[in-house]
Amino acid sequence: MNIRSIPLALYIHIPWCVRKCPYCDFNSHEARGPVPESAYVDALLADLEQDLPRVWGRRIESAFIGGGTPSLFSAEALDRLLSGLRARLPLRPDAEITLEANPGAVERGKFAEFREAGINRLSIGVQSFDDEHLRRLGRIHDRRAAFAAAEAAHAAGLDNFNLDLMCGLPGQTVARALADIASAVALQPAHLSYYQLTLEPNTPFHRSPPTLPDDETTDIIQQRAQAELARRGYRQYEVSAYARENRRCRHNLNYWEFGDYLGIGAGAHGKLADPAAGRIHRRWKLRHPRDYLASAGAPTSIGDDAPIREADLPVEFLMNALRLVEGVPSGLFPERTGLPTAALEPGLSRARERGLMVADAGRLQPTELGLRFLNDLLQAFMPG
Question: What architecture is the 311-379 domain classified under in CATH?
C-alpha cells in the first residue's frame, strides 16, 4: 500500500431529522426541539482533532455531510464547521463538498446561504414525486416541495445536485415509476441515485411490511427507468447511480474504489490504511447523539477500532468495486489492499466461468448479469 496514492475523504454525520421514516435504518433521531448545533459543531471539531494524527500530511479530496437531515442546521453552523475543518486539514482546492437536504426542511433562500458557507453540491432526498407514495413512505414533504427544492438549488447556483429516488414502492406501477423519472429529469439534476426500497430489520416497515410490487414488475421498472435515463443523458456508472457527463459523485467513487475516509459524528464510520503495520483499520464513533456529545474528542467516543482481517479484504474490496459498471483496473486491488491480485483466485475463475465477470486480466469488471446479481457474484469470493 502506497499511502500517497490512496485518496482521503471525510464523512460528517449529523443525526437529527424532523421525523423518522418507517423504512429508514440509518442512525437518525427525531429532533424533539431545537437541535444543539453549536455544541455539536464543537464536538465534530474535537472528534476530527482526535483523528488528525492518523492522517498527518494528507489532504481531503471530498467531504460529505449526511444524516439525518443536515439541512436542519443553519448556514452559520455549517460555515463554522467547514472553517474549522480547513484550519485543521488541507482540502483540495476544488474539493467536492456535499450536503444532504430534505425538501421538507429547507426554507427559501437557505441554499444560497449554504453555498456561501462552502457547500458546492447537494443531495436532495426526494424519493418520489407522487404524493400518495410520499405519504406512505412517511415523508414530510409533497410533490410541490420537491420541485421547489430543486428549483431553489438552481436559483442558488448549486446546479451540481443529486436527486434521491426510490422504486418498488408500495402500490407502485410501471407507469407511476416512469412518471417519477420524468419529473426528476425535468428538474435537470446533475446526478440521480435510483434504488429499490428494501425492508430493513428494526424498522416499522420490516415489522409491518407493506405490499410491494412483485419481482417481475420491479425488474421492468428498473429496465425501463435505466433506458429512459440513458436516453435523457444520464449514464449509469454504478448499481444505483446515474450522472450527466463529468458529474459523477467523487465522494462515493472514493468508497467504491476502496479509498480512505475519516468519519466524524455520531455513529460515523471511517476506514484508513496503515502501511507501516500492513493493515487497514475501520473505526466508528458512538451512535447516540447524547453519548457522542458527552465524549467527543475523548477515546471513550470511539465505539470500535479494529483491523480488517486479511481473509476478508478481497470481499471488502470487491463488494465496493464491483458496484461500478466499468469496474476498476486490476492493479487497484494490490494498491489499495496490499495483497497480490493472485489473492482473488480462485474466485475470479468461478465468477468468469459463470458469466458474472468480464474475462479481462486488466480489469475487475462485472458483466451485465453480474451487476444484476451482485450478491451471487460476491459469493464466489467469500472465505471458505
Answer: Orthogonal Bundle (1.10)
